[in-house]
Design a protein that fits this description.
The complex is a heterodimer of chains A (306) and B (360). In chain A, 71% of the residues lie in helices and 1% in strands. Chain A is mainly alpha-helical. Chain A has one domain (2-292): ABC transporter involved in vitamin B12 uptake, BtuC. In chain A, helix 2 (39-57) packs across helix 10 (223-233), helix 7 packs across helix 9 (185-211) and helix 10 (223-233) crosses helix 11 (238-258). Chain A is globular. Chain B has a domain at 69-300. Chain B contains 14 helices and 2 strands, in the order E-H-H-H-H-H-H-H-H-H-H-H-H-H-H-E. Chain B has helices at residues 14-38, 43-54, 58-83, 91-109, 115-144, 148-168, 201-220, 222-232, 234-239, 244-271, 277-280, 284-294, 299-323, 329-349, and strands at 2-8, 350-356. A two-stranded antiparallel ribbon of chain B has the order 1-2. Classes of the chains: A mainly alpha (306), B mainly alpha (360).
């Protein structure tokens, strides 16, 4: 029994990790006022880049860095369209997702079905990993897990308690007033989109170099969209995202747990998506006053306009 | 010293809009060519294959029209929704739900009814199926303030699994050698094809008529006026006494219903039974988003932009086979062209000039 609990909890954290990393990135981006629906595509680009680089260099950390770079690069598309051109962010984000999924499919075609010889392995933290039950669950995890939790707390701190965080948040709440304070709103938004893209790609790197160590087209399987829902669930707060991401991780694991009970696998596969809706539904019931979203989320800002 | 200045265009001319559109598409194709080149694919050869595969031969052109049918239906419905800034990304599953409803009617009532009765009934059922599935998102948005992008997308995944559940489970045909397919539709419920092609004429005519109706509705009726006001200025809509709830529900009935009918057309015209979601719709719900956008959200223009993107789909299939490219290649086209289209919009709406600094 104890083994089962440990294994379920462990897998829950593994499944939740990419969701958490992606959600932190989207929170940064949305706090600055830019809605980025490109997460799914950027995640796929990150996954394929990490895989290809790791495959050729044999160094998964090089793949990891390359993925972040690629994610930031492709996110420039969305930043340019939504910040510089004041385009509709919904459409531009969708375009980024299509482009990302397409590019990853094309680039990854020769690598389909090839296993990765090296991957990013679990890292046991000395002493802590030896604590019964808690140790193997929390302290014998992939480095991505530790990174995700540390990043969540770090980003929360930056957003809430530093000048940079105030600038990012005020760009999303009241860009006009922010600009009069001498802050370059466009620059803040550009950087937020790019950093958000880097996070999405990092989540993708987790999928291809740690979670499954292989590449298949469409391996992100809607996680990018769940990230966007989780951002709302987390009320744009990275520490709440920790809770949300691992809740969803648990639902992914639940699918495998319930399958032997004779429940249709197709029904189980619906669970994460149904849960997303239910979670938002509960959120909507609790607070109908628009959930304290950044006031100018999705609104293009044009300098010098009244 | 030069600097870029951006000012609103006072007048947006039709010729200017068209010119920017063509320029944006050309620039987009250029970039796609560059991407191909980087991936070791000869872009000229690829483009030649795409054009010859889609418009260059009679066979290809017929296939293009076949694939344009669902794109017209869905794109027209999406144009209405997007006009009101209701971001329905769920046409893919509204299509599937329409296919499910339509197939049920065809399988159960088809054997007893003649074609002229059963076919309209199936399309009606498909419309209802797609509309109901779309309404979920409208209600979630109106009642619980749930972003429609998320809800329509989640419903896409849910519906695809639901369809699979049906065909591997209760609806699975005993006559299909164990494959997860439903029974064939009875002959009366199958649509007749234009001889020598796969064009199901009934759906094509339905799609064209629907575009005329939607255009009139959108630009000449009170409902269309309300849709446009809600899209352009939701605050003004409130003061103008527009019933936001009613209009939003209607929008999703139309948008979902159109996609639902497209689903019936695909099953009754081409497949004749339900199978895997990817087979019933090869991403039409997503491609139609760009179709609507290229058409400037005008159902009349949707016809042309649908044919254009259907050509890319057919041509995409051709290069997949001849160059061994993955299915996702079409996404590169869709994504890149969409990006350039929205960039083009910027230049349609704004005058961008290079001025020397002294003059400013």
């Amino acid at each position: 029994m104890e083994e089962v609990i440990i294994s379920v909890a462990q897998r829950t954290l593994v499944a939740g990790t990419p969701l958490l990393i992606g959600t932190i990135g989207e929170i940064i981006c949305e706090r600055s006022g830019i809605l980025n629906l490109g997460v799914e595509g950027v995640m796929a680009v990150g996954a394929v880049t990490a895989f290809i680089v790791t495959h050729h260099t044999g160094n998964p950390w090089l793949g990891f860095c390359a993925a972040i770079l690629a994610g930031m690069l492709i996110s420039i598309v969305h930043a340019f369209a939504s910040v510089s051109l004041q385009s509709n962010q919904v459409v531009s984000g969708l375009a980024l997702t299509m482009l990302g999924l397409g590019l990853s499919g094309l680039l990854g075609k020769p690598y389909v079905g090839k296993p990765l010889e090296v991957k990013i392995n679990a890292l046991a933290i000395p002493l802590l990993a030896d604590i019964p039950i808690v140790g193997p669950i929390f302290f014998n995890q992939s480095p991505f897990f530790y990174m995700a939790v540390v990043l969540a707390i770090g980003v929360w701190f930056v957003l809430e308690h530093t000048l940079l965080g105030i600038r990012i948040r005020s760009a999303g709440e009241n860009p006009k007033a922010t600009e009069t304070q001498g802050v370059n709103v466009s620059l803040v938004r550009y950087l937020s989109v790019l950093v958000g893209g880097g996070f999405s790609a990092m989540a993708g790197a987790h999928l291809s170099t740690s979670y499954s160590k292989s590449w298949i087209e469409g391996m992100t399987a809607g996680r990018g969209w769940i990230v966007i829902a989780l951002t709302i669930f987390a009320l744009w707060n990275p520490t709440r995202a920790i809770l949300g991401a691992f809740l969803f991780g648990g639902i992914f694991v639940l699918q495998y747990l319930l399958q032997p009970l004779g429940i249709s696998p197709n029904f189980l596969a619906m669970l994460p998506y149904i849960t997303t809706l239910v979670v938002l539904l509960v959120g909507g019931l609790r607070d109908s006053r628009r959930l304290n979203a950044p006031a100018m989320l999705g609104e293009p800002y044009r300098r010098g306009e009244r | 010293m030069l600097r870029v200045t951006v000012t609103d265009r006072e007048q947006i001319s039709a010729a200017g809009t068209f010119f920017t559109l063509v320029l944006a598409l050309a620039a987009g194709l250029l970039v796609i060519g560059g991407i191909f080149l980087c991936c070791g694919v000869d872009p000229l050869f690829a483009f030649k294959k795409i054009v010859s595969g889609s418009f260059g031969s009679l066979y290809g052109f017929k296939e293009t029209i076949t694939k344009a049918i669902p794109l017209i239906l869905i794109g027209g419905g999406l144009a209405v929704a997007f006009k009101a800034k209701f971001w329905n990304i769920g046409a893919e599953s509204q299509l599937l739900m329409g296919a499910i409803f339509g197939t049920w009617v065809g399988l159960n009532w088809g054997p007893a009814l003649p074609g002229p009765v059963i076919v309209p009934l199936m399309f009606l059922a498909g419309f209802i199926g797609g509309a109901l599935w779309g309404l979920i998102s409208a209600v979630l948005k109106l009642r619980f303030a749930i972003n429609e992008v998320i809800s329509t997308l989640m419903l896409n995944y849910i519906c695809a699994e639901f369809l699979t559940l049906l065909i591997v489970g209760p609806w699975k045909s005993p006559k299909k050698f164990g494959f997860p397919y439903t029974d064939d539709l009875p002959a009366s419920a199958m649509l007749s094809l234009l001889p020598g092609s796969r064009i199901h004429t009934f759906t094509l005519i339905l799609a064209l008529v629907a575009m005329v109706v939607l255009t009139v509705m959108l630009f000449k009726s009170r409902f269309g006026y309300e849709v446009r006001v809600i899209g352009e200025n939701p605050d003004a809509a409130k003061y103008a006494g527009i019933d936001f709830t009613r209009t939003t529900l209607l929008i999703m009935i139309i948008s979902g219903g159109m996609a639902g009918m497209a689903g019936v057309g695909e099953v009754a015209g081409l497949h004749h039974y339900l199978s895997y979601p990817d087979t019933i719709s090869s991403g039409y719900g997503f491609t139609a988003i760009i179709v609507a956008w290229l058409a400037k959200l005008n159902p009349c223009y949707v016809v042309f932009s649908a044919i254009f993107f259907a050509g890319i789909l057919v041509g995409g299939d051709a290069i997949q086979i001849s160059l061994g490219l993955p299915a996702a290649t079409v996404d590169i086209f869709n994504g890149t062209l969409l990006i350039f289209l929205i960039m083009g919009d910027f230049f349609t709406k704004n005058r961008v000039r290079l001025l020397s600094k002294e003059k400013v």
